[in-house]
Write a structure and sequence with these properties.
Layout (H helix, E strand, L loop, with lengths): L16 E4 L5 H11 L2 H4 L1 H10 L1 E6 L5 E9 L4 E4 L4 E3 L4 E9 L8 H14 L5 E6 L13 H9 L3 E6 L6 E6 L8
């Protein structure tokens, strides 16, 4: 006979809300940013700049804790190694998609995909012409970190193509696409 102590009900999925953060939210974002290990979020000055000039979207748990985030850096000045082997800069009217992270305890629930979709929707509604994203690598040109595979898949399905690799230490893939008025987010 099975007793009620032998049956483990699945943990209920908490509702998640999404919002845009402001500079006043920096202290709330700091713990998740530190956990992420991402340069764009972990460095205080850069995080502050993103909160002031860019866009930081967040996923909030029902208690109001930030459990995921992603950023957009408009008109980013960034160089990378092009497919041709030359070092080039992003086109001037660009949006650089950076700093996506979901707390490990909340992964596998579609939070990252929803953050990606909402961020891409914001860019699509703007006057930005080119959209770029660097996918985290492993230190060799065009490499792909295992944890970055979902982001790579999302962006390639959304029409991004490899245009080169990053000059950052990780040497991750640089993906670019020209903005389309008829984009449907995967």
């Amino acid at each position: 006979m099975i007793s009620s102590t032998d049956v483990h009900a699945p943990r209920p999925v908490e509702p998640v809300t999404f919002c845009r953060l402001a500079l006043a939210d920096e202290a709330r974002l700091a713990p998740l940013a530190a956990m992420s290990g991402l340069h764009s979020l972990g460095e205080n000055a850069h995080r502050r700049l993103l909160l002031q000039r860019g866009v930081v979207l967040a996923a909030l748990s029902f208690t109001g804790d930030i459990i995921g985030c992603c950023c957009v850096e408009p008109r980013s000045i960034r160089s990378y190694v092009h497919l041709s082997g030359r070092i080039v800069s992003l086109p001037p009217n660009n949006a650089y998609l950076c700093g996506t992270f979901v707390h490990p305890a909340h992964r596998g629930r579609g939070i990252g995909r929803t953050l990606y979709s909402k961020r891409l929707g914001l860019v699509e509604a703007s006057d930005i012409e080119f959209v770029a994203v660097e996918i985290l690598g492993q230190g060799t040109p065009y490499s792909l970190s295992p944890g970055a595979r979902p982001g790579f898949s999302f962006h390639t399905r959304a029409g991004f193509a490899i245009d080169g690799y990053s000059l950052e230490e990780d040497r991750g893939r640089m993906l670019i696409r020209r903005k389309s008025r008829h984009l449907t987010c995967p």
